[in-house]
UniProtKB/TrEMBL annotation:
Pfam families: PEGA. The chain crosses the membrane at residues 7-27. The keyword Transmembrane applies. It comes from the Bacteria. This is PEGA domain-containing protein. The keyword Transferase does not apply. Residues 43-107 form the PEGA domain. Signal peptide: none annotated. Keywords: Membrane, Transmembrane, Transmembrane helix.
Amino acid sequence: MIKIRVIFFLVTLVVVGVLGLFVSYYARGYRLDLGTFKFQPNGILVLRSEPDGASVYINGHLKTATNASISIPPGTYDVEVRKDGYFSWYKRLVIEKEIVTQASASLFKNVPSLSPTTSAGAVNPVMAEDGGKIAYSVLPGKDVGTDKSGLWVLDTFSLPLGFGAGPKRITDGDMTGATYVFSPDGREILLTITNSSFLLDTGSFTAQNQRINIASRMDTTLTEWAAEKELKDQSLIRNLPPELSDILSRKSLSFVFSPDGTMILYAASSSGTLPEGLVRPLPGASTQRQERSVQTGHTYVYDIKEDRNFLITDQPATIDNTDNPEQGALRWMSTSRHLLFALNGQVVIMDYDGTNRQTVYSGSYFAPSAFPFSNTTKLLILTNLGAPAATANLYTLTVK
């Protein structure tokens, strides 16, 4: 009887050990090759999409739906995600054995819809540095009452599910020829009309007859704001690898961190080289083509976590919300995984590595006045819908 129990115990240990080994190999991507009856080392592709339920094609063959794990042999694959009513998502991915490669496909509608956000006109929209607010002017006219003309601010982060309570007027009066600049924190705005300058609170209304002219202190205020921004920028790059800090400090026109702080969008002012191995490589890191040689006039995104540097455009583009009608404007979307590229005649959304460039709007608008909102299902564009005599207004563009 004792001998049977010992044998049973030993058999149980062997079975448990074999099952444990099988589960361990399976979790690492190994699969049984029915041709050779051997376990072959595979890689695992974890593919998610927004919205979910999209079809996954690998090398042109339908494999499964998104939000699934796919075990495939090591190699290079063309992966496509398709869903009716949306632009397809495509990437060439390198799958390594025993490595989990994760990819997220954000799908955008191929027939977006437009709806008006303003109706009394909108002139010279300007976005705050953090993307939290947009200021614009409403000029007096025969169809615009005194309760409409003035400077308005639209809060883009008021509600997570939309545009919140809508635009708020922060001062009245004729804004013809007015210029305005947000403070680094977006709480104040410096309004300049003719030879007068006024510092306004972006969260409250200041009547025209209550504004205080600070023209004599305008240059001092702008200098202080520039110093505040410089201090913030230096604090952000202080802990980066020295080679990268040098390029951002001395060889870039400007740079902007992604909302989550893991990416840096920068425009190169002179050439340089980013050495390999600035940070320890991560398993399953991006396998998209990168550019370590930085060229003058080109714009790049550097991935801090994965030490990857991606070319976004080799044409001049603004990245700091100082719009130039002659250049495209690049702006981070709130996902930190996408960029909005506002060009003449079209608005493009792309992945942070420059792939999956989707033209979500093509037509008449006042480039580069296209802005992302905290709700990534919508953008904001300035257009008169192609009617030259019509007043331009801000429209929401639903892209998801």
